[in-house]
Amino acid sequence: MKQILVTGVAGFIGSKVAQILIEKGLNVVGIDNLNDQYDVSIKHWRLNGLREKKAFQFIELDIESSESLVSLFQKERLDAVIHLAARAGVRDSIEVPHQYMQTNLMGTLNLLDCMKNFEVGKLVMASSSSLYAGQPLPYNESLSVNTPLSPYAVSKKSAELLAHSYHKIHQLDVSILRYFSVYGPMGRPDLVIFRFIKWIIENQPVEVFGDGTQSRDFTFVDDVAMATIAALKPVGYEVFNVGSGRTPTSLNQIVSWIEEYTEKKAEIVFKEFNNADILTSEADISKARKILGWNPTVSMKDGLHLCIKDYLDNIDFAAGVNL
Fold first, then answer.
1. Catalytic residue, candidates 152, 166, 179, 261
2. What is the pTM of this model?
3. Residue 152 known to be catalytic
4. Helical spans, DSSP H, in 83-205
């Protein structure tokens, strides 16, 4: 492979994937529509680091525009597509479900059509652990995922099925990655890790939905990026969990560790739990270990420390990011 298309390249995972691909000697064409679902300044922050690389080309493009995608595929010789562009988040999807289906399903359809028509045979596509709602722990890829709790989960399940049909009919080679609570330095400001760090450092109340005992399989972004790149190998059609491989961490524990590292005491405001959320998540990652040869390496405590250090190192920028 010589040139990879990364959709959603200004996103948290996309920018890290692009960075590592370039370090491995590949060329990256990155596309993103730079929408304002969260503070766009952090997306430009990520892009600025990539634009310094000769092997990186950025095109502002919306996957909902089939015409724009066709033009891109006509111009560029692509060897594979890593599809990370999406509307993300459970709660927002309840407010604007049509937008989620339009981007996550129809945008994916546009991309799959281009791959078919321009003979780009390999797709790595981001999905979500939110599909496992109501299933027994730890979540295994063989479990039924037919009881989604949010339009976001519905859109991701639908995109998986669409990719499967293109694999069967058009022989696309597809790796589906179900990500588990990705976090890391300069992560999404709409998620708990960035918010908790910012609130505690700035001596603001920390908002926790529920009693804080709910837990997640938090997975460090570098580990997630390495899994994503490993999934470029030919697999036919496979679904892989991408989690930490460790015991889930509660929100209360996250707050406690941030307090320890920052030497600050948090004021916690508990709010009503959202029924579209899940109480806990835990990934069985044995399949990714076996087939992709991937193993996560960063512990939750070490990863959180890196997040806090990065926030403090870039505090003039980070403090201005809107939540």
1. 152
2. 0.96
3. yes
4. 90-95, 97-101, 107-117, 151-170, 192-201
